[in-house]
UniProtKB/TrEMBL annotation:
This is UDP-N-acetylglucosamine--N-acetylmuramyl-(pentapeptide) pyrophosphoryl-undecaprenol N-acetylglucosamine transferase. Its EC number is 2.4.1.227. CDD domains: GT28_MurG. It is a peripheral membrane protein. Residues 5-143 form the Glycosyltransferase family 28 N-terminal domain. Keywords: Cell cycle, Cell division, Cell membrane, Cell shape, Cell wall biogenesis/degradation, Glycosyltransferase, Membrane, Peptidoglycan synthesis, Transferase. The keyword Translocase does not apply. It catalyses: di-trans,octa-cis-undecaprenyl diphospho-N-acetyl-alpha-D-muramoyl-L-alanyl-D-glutamyl-meso-2,6-diaminopimeloyl-D-alanyl-D-alanine + UDP-N-acetyl-alpha-D-glucosamine = di-trans,octa-cis-undecaprenyl diphospho-[N-acetyl-alpha-D-glucosaminyl-(1->4)]-N-acetyl-alpha-D-muramoyl-L-alanyl-D-glutamyl-meso-2,6-diaminopimeloyl-D-alanyl-D-alanine + UDP + H(+). Pfam families: Glyco_tran_28_C, Glyco_transf_28. One of its GO terms (cellular component) is plasma membrane.
């Protein structure tokens, strides 16, 4: 019996591919054990136990950005996290550590190396984070979601997608999806989402432009995220929700999408052939622009700077796209041409070696 320790968490971008891999490992190796390493504060603290997995927690120890008091306490805290993870590895007889990036992955990689346990990494972003750049130096295998991701010895596997996404028949699910969200299956739907935490610019612009969009005959399904800072415009054909527990149905209903360019969102829209407008998060290391680069280059998406995504842009460019069915059909085919529906199986094959 093999014991796998899957490390990652914090946001849906880390948790969802981790859970997709965990589920597939459990399917193909029912006698093996799958444990998850995360923090007590992240999204994994709710989603992992709900999915039926044991969650082992370690303290969140972010790398210091500047030399201050927190930097002085980093070294002992980080050493403590490594020691805690190594003790977990030895206590549970872990055979393989699989990391998905984020705070908990770095101590997991170092602890695994010290315990002489192999490390396998999945990098979701086209521009890798610090944890995976470190771990990739000694990992047995590295799978990446996007071609050209600069990690040594990396193999393109695509994004591990949840079973309900990778097997989604959008046409067959449309009526159920429309009923679930209270929309009309016979009329086109624009899906708007900024991720689990929301996107201030996208939310504000879409709310302010709602009347322009519904005037085209389109319906809007607006998933605001937890930090919305906008009110429901209460327009006909406009549905605003904070979180979509059935994101598979939201994607089934989407004839076009507006979203951030998080790795999971880009991968899901490409895999399902959804023409999309991507508004990359303007803060950070710019990875979201790189995430969308391949699908945009193929013609399956449109990239818009955060500062440029304003009602004037919606009233001209987005409305023009919504009115052009031929262009959307071409974008859908282009997106699907670079998407991957088998990322979960390919990643699991890499892990099992």
């Amino acid at each position: 019996m093999t014991c796998y320790l899957l490390a990652g968490g914090g946001t849906a971008g880390h948790v969802n591919p981790l859970l997709a891999v965990a589920d597939r490992l459990r399917e193909v190796e029912p006698d093996s054990r799958v444990l998850v390493l995360g923090t007590a504060e992240g999204l994994e603290s709710r989603l992992v136990p709900d999915r039926g997995y044991d969650l082992l927690t370690v303290a969140k120890v972010p790398f210091p950005r500047r030399p201050d008091k927190r930097a002085l306490s980093f070294v002992p805290a980080f050493r403590g996290a490594i020691a805690a993870v190594r003790a977990m590895i030895e206590e549970h007889g872990v055979d393989v550590v699989v990391g998905f990036g984020g705070y908990v992955s770095t101590p997991a990689y170092i602890a695994a190396r010290r315990a002489r346990v192999p490390v396998v990494i999945h990098e979701a972003n086209a521009r890798p984070g610090l944890a995976n750049r470190l771990g990739a130096r000694f990992a047995r295998s590295v799978g990446v979601a996007f071609a050209g991701t600069p990690l040594p010895r990396s193999i393109l596997v695509g994004m591990p997608l949840r079973r309900e996404i990778e097997t989604l028949d959008r046409a067959a699910s449309r009526a159920e999806a429309a009923a679930f969200f209270g929309l009309d299956a016979a009329r086109p739907v624009l899906l708007v989402t900024g991720g689990s935490l929301g996107a201030r610019r996208i939310n504000r612009t879409i709310v302010d432009s709602g009347s322009l969009i519904v005037a085209t005959g389109w319906q809007v399904l607006h998933v605001t995220g937890a930090q919305a800072e906008v009110g429901d415009p209460r327009l006909p054909d406009y549905r605003m929700i904070e979180y979509a527990d059935r994101m598979d149905l939201a994607l089934a209903l989407a004839d076009a999408a507006v979203s951030r360019a998080g790795a999971a969102t880009v991968s899901e829209c490409a895999a399902l052939g959804i023409p999309s407008v991507y508004v990359p998060y303007p803060v950070g290391n710019g990875e979201q622009r790189f995430n969308a680069a391949e699908v945009v280059a193929a013609g399956g998406g449109i990239l818009v700077d955060d500062a440029a995504f304003v009602p004037d842009w919606v009233g001209t460019e987005l409305v023009s796209l919504l009115r052009d069915s031929e262009r959307r059909a071409e974008m859908a085919a282009a997106a699907a041409s670079v998407g991957h529906r088998d990322g979960t199986d390919r990643m699991v094959a890499l892990i099992r070696g």
